[in-house]
């Protein structure tokens, strides 16, 4: 969740996930004051979790941690 998925390693990621998001990207958006509402920030957090659940199987740590967030 912390950094963008390495698409050189996870080659099909962008085929499955159309709008990647990660906490490092979010930090940059905060620093650039790109979020104008709390809902925009929440949307990106939800996007991280949704992406993890879409791409990963339920028995993976990524899926489970997305549920915890």
From TrEMBL:
Domain of life the protein comes from: Eukaryota
Coiled coil: none
GO BP: chromatin organization
Keyword Glycoprotein: no
Keyword set, alphabetical order: Bromodomain
Presence of the UniProt keyword Ion transport in the record: no
SUPFAM superfamilies: Bromodomain (SSF47370)
Protein name per the record: Bromodomain-containing protein
Species, as recorded: Syncephalis pseudoplumigaleata
């Amino acid at each position: 969740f912390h950094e963008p998925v390495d698409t050189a390693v996870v080659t099909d990621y962008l085929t499955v996930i159309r709008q990647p998001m990660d906490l490092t990207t979010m930090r940059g958006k905060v620093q650039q004051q790109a979020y104008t509402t709390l809902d925009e920030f929440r949307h990106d957090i939800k996007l991280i979790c949704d992406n993890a659940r879409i791409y990963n199987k339920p028995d993976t740590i990524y899926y489970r941690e997305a549920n915890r967030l």
